[in-house]
Design brief:
The chain is an alpha+beta fold. The chain contains five helices and 15 strands. The chain has a domain of about 160 residues. About 25% of the residues lie in helices and about 35% in strands. The strands form five sheets. It has a four-stranded antiparallel sheet. It has a three-stranded antiparallel sheet with strand order 3-7-6. Strands 10-13-14 form a three-stranded antiparallel sheet, with no helix packed on it. The longest helix has 20 residues. It is elongated.
Length: about 300
């Protein structure tokens, strides 16, 4: 305990007293140490110092001439939940073909040209596709999810759409009006790069989703948003098919639960320097998908 009013007790550390205590340098030794340091500095050749400055300046100039880094300017994600393994396999093959593609200034991108044929010799397999409301196996089933995801990224990136086709019925992985069907060779997705610099496509499967991005070395200088307007909804009907001439005692099976039809318009709003412009992208009409019931004899 410190005793007030008296000098504190000597510190017990032997390094601070007696033989173990270091002697403080004299003023002459301090002056001599500084003089030695100054002498060493004087021994460095002046040319070496100038060379170091020149190297630093050269590195700064070189760094300034490097092209800007690629940055994401638009991205869109669709989910893979509920898709079959075969569909996901085909999606992976398709996105590998478009990943890393460069679109030159004023250049056009074609999905079909980039991906090529989705045939078995290129690794594609049969997977479910929607045909008139029914799912049937077909080569390359699932590829349309890649084109749809890229289409939405292109809209958000300000690309000028040259060709786009809707599916007959709305798809589950994208909102109505924002799907993009493709089929070899005459149903394609094409868009143009309107900028004075190149744009790069980045596409990959991430977890349980597919992500497409557009990358640029310059900021777009504007904000882009996609908007939808559902103008009309038509309820589905019901279709009954019998596999037995005698309708009594049938076992009913729901083949398709059906979906409403709709008319939908898609717009793109572009805001530049506080001024906003709204442009129509598409106006699509989807017929209702009727509820389909199979009636079959219990004997089957």
């Amino acid at each position: 305990m410190r005793r007030h009013g008296t000098d504190p007790e000597p510190h017990p550390n032997p390094l601070l007293q007696g033989e173990g205590a270091p002697n403080p340098p004299s003023s002459q030794e301090g002056v001599r140490g500084r003089s030695l340091s100054a002498q060493r500095s004087a021994l460095i050749p002046r040319g070496l110092a100038l060379a170091s400055v020149a190297i630093a300046l050269a590195l700064a100039v070189w760094a300034a001439t490097l092209p800007p880094r690629w940055q994401t300017v638009a991205a869109y994600r669709t989910g893979l939940d509920g898709r079959t393994d075969a569909q996901i396999h085909n999606v992976r093959l398709a996105v590998r073909s478009i990943d890393g593609k460069l679109i030159a200034p004023s250049g056009e991108f074609s999905f079909n040209r980039a991906v090529g044929s989705w045939s078995p010799d290129r690794g594609y397999v049969k997977a479910p596709v929607s045909y008139d409301g029914e799912l049937i196996p077909s080569w390359g089933g699932g590829v349309c999810q890649a084109s749809t995801t890229l289409y939405n990224a292109a809209l958000l990136g300000g690309m000028e759409v040259q060709e786009r086709h809707k599916h007959r019925f709305p798809v589950r992985y994208a909102p109505p009006g924002q799907d993009a069907a493709v089929a070899q060779m005459d149903i394609d997705l094409r868009f143009r790069n309107p900028y004075e610099w190149p744009v790069k496509i980045e596409a990959e499967v991430e977890g349980n989703g597919l992500v497409c991005r557009l990358l640029s070395q310059r900021p777009l200088g504007r904000r882009i948003a996609v908007q939808r307007e559902v103008r009309q909804v038509t309820p589905p009907g019901e279709v009954i098919r019998l596999r037995d001439s005698d309708p009594r005692g049938l076992r009913w099976r729901v083949v398709n639960s059906g979906a409403p039809g709709m008319q939908v318009a898609v717009y793109r709003r572009i805001t530049t320097d506080g001024r906003s412009v709204r442009e129509m992208i598409s106006e699509d009409t989807y017929p209702p998908m009727n509820r389909l019931l199979w009636g079959e004899s219990r004997r089957l």
